[in-house]
Specification:
Layout: E1 3-10, E2 18-27, E3 30-37, H1 45-51, H2 55-62, H3 67-79, E4 83-86, H4 89-102, E5 112-114, H5 115-118, H6 120-123, H7 139-145, H8 150-161, H9 170-186
Parallel strand pairs: 1-4, 4-5
Antiparallel strand pairs: 1-2, 2-3
Helix pairs in contact: 7-9, 8-9
């Protein structure tokens, strides 16, 4: 079974472009990390404030490559997966679908596992306004729940991607998500995902 654990950084919220895609391919042969930066048309200042990637940085980090330049290879990898895993996975799948749609490509429907939704009850954070249910955890809150340190996550990001030592770098966030799934499995809180 081929699982892809992934995270995306984007240029904004709606009609945005992907500026970084990081993913781990997890199958019977092991774990392989892949990361790609993309040159983009514009950047929402709020998005840049979160991930820290300016258009100039992305041009350099990507070597001038855009999503369209690598879309076929990315599509082949993602379309052959049995399961997508991510934190707020619905948002990241939407970004992928938007990018592929711009190129008249359609990503097949692949089952997903969302760490944010699945572990909301376990983490049990209080909402600012009590509406009778817990607040979905941010990825860093989920990592704290599973007692994963930033240093441990950064070390695994380094191992799998060669870099990615801070939150909101998709490499770090992908490593954090996968480590949460591993720890949940180890603790018996999760079965059948890995």
């Amino acid at each position: 079974m081929k699982r892809i654990v992934f995270d995306i950084e984007a240029t904004g919220l709606s009609e945005a472009q992907i500026c970084q895609l990081s993913y781990l391919i997890v199958d019977d042969s092991g774990v392989v990390g892949k990361n790609q930066f993309f040159a983009v048309d514009d950047m929402n200042p709020d998005a840049e404030a979160v991930h820290g990637f300016s258009m100039e940085m992305l041009e350099e980090l990507s070597g001038g490559l855009r999503f369209a330049d690598l879309a076929s290879a990315i599509y082949a990898e993602f379309a052959s997966a049995n399961l997508f895993i991510g934190h707020n996975i619905a948002a990241d799948v939407r970004y992928l679908q938007m990018e592929f749609a711009r190129l008249d490509m359609k990503l097949p429907k692949i089952p997903t596992f969302c760490t944010m939704n699945h572990f909301t009850s376990d983490v049990n954070l209080k909402m600012k306004v009590n509406i009778g249910r817990p607040k979905p955890p941010k990825l860093i809150e989920l990592c704290e729940y599973f007692e994963l340190t930033e240093e441990a996550i950064a070390a695994k990001a380094q191992e799998w991607f060669g870099d990615g030592n801070a939150a909101h770098d998709a490499r770090f966030d992908t490593a954090a998500t996968y480590l949460c799934v591993l720890e949940a499995t180890r603790r018996g809180k999760l079965r059948g995902v890995l």
